Amino acid sequence: MMSETSVNAQSTGAGGSVDADSSAKFAQRIRIAKIVAVVAGIVGIVIALLTPFLPVNYTKTELSWPQQNSVGSVAAPSVSFSPVSMDVTVPCALGKSMPASGGVIVSTVPWNGADANKVGFFVRATRDSLQLTQRNIVLLSAPRAAAENSPDCRVVFHADTDGAAGRFDNLSNPDSGLGSFDLRDATARPQIIGVYSQLPENAPTDGLSFRATLDTRFVSTPTTLKFWLMVIGVVMTIASMLALAVLDARDGRSAHRRFGSRWWRPRWVDAFVTLVLLIWLFVGGNTADDGYQVTVARVARNAGYLDNYYRYFGVPQDPFGWHYQYLSLWMQVSTATPWLRLLPFLYAVVGWWLISRYAIPRLGHAVRTSQSAIWAAALVFLAVWMPFNNGLRVEPIIAVGTLLAWVLVERAIATGRFFPLTLAVVVAAFTLTIHPTGVIAAIPLIAGIRPLLKRLMIRRRRDGLWPILVPILAAGVVVLYEIFADQTLASIREAIRVNAAVGPTNKWWEEGMRYYMLMNPTADGGIARRFGVLITFVCLIVVVVMLLNRRRLAGIASAPTWRLVATVAGTAVMMAFLPTKWTHQMGVYACIAGALAAVATVCVDRAVMRRRRNRTLFAAACAYVLALAFSGRNQWWYVGSYGIPWRDAVPDVKGIPVWAVILAVAVLLTLLGLWQHFRDDYVSDDIRRGEERVSKNRWTSWLRSPSIIVVSVIMLLFTLVSFAKADWTQRHSWSWLSSNVAAVRGQPCALADSVLVEKDVNEGLLSPAGVAGQNNPSPGAALAGAGSAGFDPNGVGSDLSDDGTESDSDSSTGTSSAEIDRTQSDATDQSGSDSSSPSSDTAGGTTSTTGVNGSRVKLPFGLSPQRTPVLGTYGSPSGTGSLTSDWYQLPPRSADAPLITMSVAGQIEYVDDLAVTRSGQQVRLQFGRVGPDGAVTPAGIMTPMDIGGAPAWRNLRFALDAAPQGATVVRVLAQDTSTNPDQWLAVTPPRVSKMVTLNDLVGREAPVMIDWEAALAFPCQRPAQVHNGVLETPEWRISPDREGERVNSQRWMSGTAGGPLGIVENQLRPTVLPSYLRNDWAKDWGMLQRLTPLVPQKPAELTVTTDVHNGLWSPGQIRAVGF
């Protein structure tokens, strides 16, 4: 490459040997190139700017009812919740079809949904009145008898984006109640899940009408006019850029080397990086939002646009998020994890190629020829890439895009050509529109403005100004074709508005939150994450200090280095303006950090940093970074933490924290540096520079600046060994390595093949054994045994929400406790009513009927009250209790029934997945051997394993392979020794249920609501689709671990945020199926729920048509608040 001050501005010309005809042809070609550059560029710019306003074909979805002359309930859950418009007409005489106690004539949500009255529209008959209510407000009301007997009386309701109005028509006594209303409020529209009614099947439908236009403004396609204009615009933009390339070639230097002479030859460092990345593809942990990316991409094709799915009332990801489009195409090949992870692997390989073949050579001769520099670059690149970018989030492509933009800018500066600059502009624009974080790709353009302007001033004398500027501007706006390909300005503006209204939207002055989370002992601030970010900042500081200290550094190209520094520093600044403050976004540093590490390594080389004191203090700084990293936990996200050592604590060896040892080394190095500071005044220059030691040690002569390399190698080894340990620990259960290897072998279903589910909990209930002293007792008597005390069939608390008494500090789930509000409880309904619809069925409550032993306790997990007795000590007069049940008969051992399980509630002592015993009241299983005379000889007692979550209903588990040999019977021993009213327990009989894998039970075709945190681990299950603005009714729900479901799912996916739980919890009744991770029985893998409709329903028949509207048309604002 040429230096920045030696670019030829003028072609040397053809010389006197070129005839006049050739000169004329050459001049003609240049003249055409200038015209094409300007004219084609202007056409491309104009069409690009017009694209947001051009018309599109809108899909219009309408829901009408009754359907097929039936008043049966129909389901059509709108992902935008509220309709664009809604018209309802109800004859008052229909009240006569309802019983005297009343009922729902028509509603937009099931009447027994969790928040039905809060979000829905109802026309109902009460005992005394006929009412129209919406969102818990009575808007119309009239005496029932008067309304029913008024000829032609009807209830009329209309709502749209301007407001809502309603009235009684032809009411004989209009002054007898609330006869009309008119609300000029854009939010006065209900949520639509369908149309529901309690009218009898034979109710007349004359005059009964419900019609709603669902909000499908984002389901659009370009019109023929728009499509061909965009094709022309893209072609014109490319032609303009190519014309600029022709003008660039006038410099006569056709031999511009784009690559070094050995750029294609692989080196040991290339093999090392590729091998580590390939290993990491199989063994590495997932990133936080992989499941989010997977599901959005999987539903995009049927949705017709990039539906956010988990939040934001169904608005698209646009203008940010085009990467979901290629993810959707990629997943059409396979959803197996190795195939999905191939994308970040390829990005990483491209990123490393840019670093090693383009960035490092540009940074100067000393950087290019230093083995230490290139190895440091590789190790720091891996240090950032591995913990942040081994998934489907946007950071990998942003990291590559940012460095590519820098490389292209540097190419333009070095050669004086502007075609590379247009490519840099295109790269920056597309990187920006992949996610707001992508704004950092524009920083290299800003950093290179000054030298680029100098070259522009030179080139304008030869080629003019407009033939250069127009192609650059056209390249800058070409991204508009992608953003507005099937969307319009109005729809994108509405999407941005809804995103801002729902949030989160943090301010720039809250940027400290990101670093606070990085330093938290959670998966957000895991050891590897801390190190990658901190070592990047250390490299930045040392390079800046060295550049400021000296005007020129030997062998280092100062100007490109300053622009690289500006890119790294600018990234830190620009990230402050992002609306979210997640640590995940720090993965964008990966590529630029690798290039910067190469410069930093040369900066601390003895040839540049001459004082040994400074080199020692830099080594101390690197050691402090390592110590600070090891003061965190070795946590990874969700299933990525399975089996990882020190996932629940700070790493230590025999009680000595690892960080303390490293800190001691750092302090010693600091003291050595201080000693050298004072001592160097009295030694020779060779000693001061460390030259004598260099000549005596061939390793230090090659590894002249080892600090970055040493700490990075330590971190890399620690990470890889941690995952190797995890894979060995989980060798009989589940890990990413075993899962990915199985996928390569044709078994791609990941965690679904390792989660075992009790297929029928009631069939698994053990029966009383026919042993001496037991004469066929009833289920209740068998559980109570001969001498129970303090236990009662109704001794179960009514509020079984997670009380938070169990410590979360030792959680090994990988869930970020930085995001946990400890004041929040599970979003479950505690009313205890049979008609309630809590988020799961483990929240307790009572029923109106009694069970087999006289209990009115509402049982979880699908347990039948007619077969399952329950006993508990809640409310015991003495506050204590004891129970020894009768003996239960164990079935013959079988591979498909590996556990004895018990459904329990309250505070119970158990052993968790870390083999730590958690305190509580005692529940044990005692095994026995039956003699020839029928007498039972006790054979051993087993302590239960559990996942926690007290006092909610949950399942204790006892591994049968650990049961005493020859034991054929078992009984329950329970002791409540605490008089604290919160320390109670409740038990049901033990079970040995046949188990099937989740994959076999749920299958691949049933629609499933897969929570975003869990979605990557279940690639074979089909997410419930979105089509024509309507969410397919899911039959199952798969959630992550208990804390992840409470913190992430219940908040991010909530109805108040426009998430699918606002539909599911109002439409469906959940039943939790007991499930366990194979051979890791105490692991909280997550939760499987069977979802059944709250009321009988069928899918609605929708009327789908197409309208054409221009880019400024909008049906009005989406209701994004008040749910």
Distance between the termini: 61 Å
Total E-strand runs: 38
How many alpha or pi helices?
A: 32
What is the CA-atom radius of gyration, in angstroms?
35 Å
What is the arithmetic mean of pLDDT?
89
Structural class: alpha+beta
C-alpha geometry? flat
Beta-strand share of residues: 15-25%
- Most strands sheet: 8 strands, antiparallel
Number of domains: 5
Uncertain spans: 1-16, 694-699, 807-838
Helix content: 25-40%
Biased composition (Polar residues): 1-12
Function: Arabinosyl transferase responsible for the polymerization of arabinose into the arabinan of arabinogalactan.
Subcellular location: Cell membrane
Domain Arabinosyltransferas concanavalin like: 58-217
Layout: helices, strands, pairs:
Elements: H1 20-50, E1 56-65, E2 74-75, E3 85-91, E4 103-107, H2 116-119, E5 121-125, E6 129-134, E7 137-143, H3 144-148, E8 154-160, E9 163-169, E10 180-183, E11 194-195, E12 209-213, E13 220-222, H4 224-248, H5 268-283, H6 290-303, H7 323-331, H8 337-362, H9 365-369, H10 371-388, H11 395-415, H12 419-432, H13 443-447, H14 449-463, H15 466-477, H16 479-483, H17 489-502, H18 512-518, H19 527-549, H20 558-575, H21 590-603, H22 612-630, E14 652-653, E15 656-657, H23 658-679, H24 685-689, H25 691-696, H26 698-702, H27 707-729, H28 736-744, E16 755-758, H29 779-784, E17 871-872, E18 881-884, E19 888-889, E20 899-906, E21 910-911, E22 917-918, E23 922-930, E24 936-942, E25 954-959, E26 969-976, E27 985-987, E28 995-997, H30 998-1002, E29 1007-1010, E30 1022-1023, E31 1026-1027, E32 1030-1031, E33 1036-1039, H31 1042-1052, H32 1061-1067, E34 1068-1073, E35 1075-1077, E36 1087-1093, E37 1098-1099, E38 1102-1109
Helix pairs in contact: 1-4, 1-15, 4-15, 5-8, 5-10, 6-7, 8-10, 8-11, 8-21, 10-19, 10-21, 10-27, 11-12, 12-15, 19-20, 19-21, 19-22, 20-21, 22-23, 22-27
